[in-house]
Amino acid sequence: MSDEHHKDKDSIDPSEKLKEQKESGEPIQSTDHGPGGIRMGNAKIPPFLMITYVVLALWAFGYAFTAVPLNQVSEASADGEAIFQQSCLGCHNVTNEPSVGPGLEGVSERYDNEELQEILVNGIGEMPSLPALGLNTEQIKAVKEYILEL
Amino acid sequence: MSVKTEIDPFRPAKIYFYSSLFWLGAGLTYGLILSLKFIWPNFLAYGPLQIILQYGRIRPIHTNIVLFGWLTMANVGALFYIIPKLCRNRLSFPRLAYGSAFIWNAVVFAGTVVLTLGYTTTTEYAEWPLWIDIIVVLMFGAIAFICFATIANRNEKQLYVSLWYFMGSLIWLIGLYIIGNLPYKMLSGVPQFLIFWFYGHNVIGLWFTTVGVGILYYLLPLLTKNPLYSHKLSLIGFWTIATFYVWNGPHHLQNGPIPLWLMKAGVIPSVMLIIPVWSVLANVFGTLKGKWHAVPHNVPLMFVVVGSIFYLITCLQGPFHSLQGPSSVIKFSDWVPGHAHLPLFGAFSFIAFAMMYYAIPKIIDHDIHSKKLMGAHFWFSVVGMFLFAFSTWTAGVLEGLAWIEGAQYGMQFVEMLVGMRPLFIIRAIAGALMLVGQMIFVVNLAVTIGKARNAQKGQENSA
Question: Contact B431/B389 with Cβ under 8 angstroms?
Answer without folding.
Answer: no
